[in-house]
């Protein structure tokens, strides 16, 4: 059954220590078809983290940012 949600998972606070560890775990271990996003107070910082995560697993689509 196809989900009508835009994202399967939204990670809040990826710029902090624990949030970054969680984001790296998602990139390395979750299925590449996962629709996910990063959310935080500073869109610029969240975008920077998203770009860094792309280097860990180039096959994964870059997460959305909110």
What does this structure look like?
- With 66 residues, the protein is an alpha/beta fold.
- It is built from 2 helices and 3 strands; from the N terminus they run βαβαβ.
- A 3-stranded parallel beta sheet has the order 1-2-3, with helices on one face.
- Helix 2 links the parallel strand 2 and strand 3.
- Helix 1 packs parallel to helix 2.
- It starts with 8 loop residues before the first strand and ends with a strand.
- The relative contact order is 0.24.
- The mean pLDDT is 91.
Which terms would index this structure?
single chain, 66 residues, alpha/beta, three-stranded parallel beta sheet, 41% helix
Question: What's the quick description here?
Answer:
By secondary structure, the protein is of the alpha/beta class. It has two helices and three strands.
Count of alpha/pi helices: 2
In helices, the fraction of residues equals 40-55%
* N-end to C-end Cα span: 26 Å
Order of the strands making up the biggest sheet: 1-2-3
Give the rounded overall mean pLDDT: 91
Question: Mind telling me the C-alpha Rg?
Answer: 11 Å
- Strand % is 15-25%
Low-confidence stretches: none
Main beta sheet: 3 strands, parallel
User: What order do the SSEs take from the amino end to the carboxyl end, as H and E?
Assistant: EHEHE
Counting copies of identical and different chains, the oligomeric state is single chain
Strand tally is 3
- Which structural class do the helices and strands define? alpha/beta
* Shape type: globular
